[in-house]
Amino acid sequence: MIDDWDGPDDPDNPRNWSLAKRAYHSAIPALFGFAVTFGTSVYSPSVSNVMEDLHVSRTGAILGLTIFTLGLGYGPVFSAPLSEKYGRKIVYMASAPIFMLFTLGSALSKNLAALLVCRLFAGLTGSPALAVGAGTNVDLFPPHTRAVTTSVFMIAPFLGPSLGPVIGGFAVQHKGWRWSQWSLLIITAAVFLAAIPMMETYKVEILRKRAKRRGLSSSLGETHISAKKAVMQNLVRPLHMLITESAVFFFSLYVAFAFGVLFLFFAAFPFVFQRPPYNMDTEQTGLLFLAIGVGASLGGVTGIVVDRHMYQKHHRHAVSSGKGYAAPEHRLYSAMIGSLGLPLGLFWFGWTAEKGMHWAIPAAAAIPFAWGNMCIFIAAVLYIVDVYGPLNGASAMAGNGILRYTLGGVFPLFTIQMYEKLGIGWATSLLGFVSVLMLPIPWIFYKYGPAIRRRSRYPTAM
């Protein structure tokens, strides 16, 4: 009977692989995450061209962004159970070609209905990279070293939206809107080829194959529930935790709002910078999104620095005191720091653009905003997984993902109307005021987290 590793030094255990091998297996999901999230924003420069080519309204054209983003949010409901039953690698290798086929369909679409259907299924089939990637990182690294890999893994999906408008802007201006989809197809194909040498990292699947090779029995995988029940469980439990667990609700709401504003910028930047006094073209506007990439990278670095100089100190103290890990609240330092970045960036952007200051000044405001966004996201992921453990933590993050991508998809739909009615300064300030209201969330959980955790309806891991 094989139900566990042969020992702590078992070479088949992914946590015992060489650092280079683990880095490769961590980098591939991150690159898939980059490609998929690149698919959200690479479409944004296409809106005007889609309006002209397919003869649709602006809102109809923006739906191409919204529907893809919603697919990313709800796709894990289907893909997560598959990874638990069949392993991580097959989900990556099976979903990516289907994602590329629907991206090809988007590029060849002759009407809005075909475009929206293809974009929806591209989002659904691209989402496993985001959902299963977190599981791959859990397979490869123990909890106390996970902050670094989580920070690096989260940078890639943030770089996707920041680089999408850059490449999409050049492609659309010179080749037309369909090349926004061709560029997505090319990038995904390159990542897919790089992923072919991947090995399986999921413990259950590795041990199941080992038992088969040795001609031994194994109880692993025998208790799998039906696919229908698995899908319901992966939808109902995340939504239940989102509603009933205060930690899940408030951090998901905070992260989802910040994510929604990030996607709102896909519509806000063209509205602001392609009009007087800036009068930029599509290429120039796309380049401005590099500021978001800079801010997200700085946020990832901040997460690593905070882990090295703050969290690890508490972790070592906890271990020396006979405890397994430091309290989850020590994961929240980067969120507390980053909570200041959101309102700073929003007020800065709104009023410098309203006054028509040099383009570099409002564009630079995206740096503190993206930095704060990234800091909050990293801390929220680490905190929730520490609190609820791998199983319920995954469900909590699935609920977070549903809300995050729902707001990310919906916010661009009302951006233009809000900016036209309120003006650049007050429209962005409205978002800034909401971010100020949410600013205390990580601070409150840092202080009252233990008491809140004791009232949880779900077992907490720490």
From TrEMBL:
The keyword Transmembrane helix applies. One of its GO terms (biological process) is xenobiotic transport. Pfam families: MFS_1. PROSITE patterns: MFS (PS50850), SUGAR_TRANSPORT_1 (PS00216). It is a multi-pass membrane protein. The keyword Protein transport does not apply. It is found in: Membrane. InterPro entries: MFS (IPR011701), MFS_dom (IPR020846), MFS_trans_sf (IPR036259), Sugar_transporter_CS (IPR005829). GO terms for molecular function: spermidine transmembrane transporter activity; spermine transmembrane transporter activity. Residues 25-462 form the Major facilitator superfamily (MFS) profile domain. The chain crosses the membrane at residues 23-44, 56-78, 90-108, 147-167, 179-199, 247-273, 285-306, 332-351, 363-385, 397-418, 424-446. GO terms for cellular component: plasma membrane. It comes from the Eukaryota. Keywords: Membrane, Transmembrane, Transmembrane helix. Belongs to the major facilitator superfamily. This is MFS general substrate transporter. It comes from Sporormia fimetaria CBS 119925.
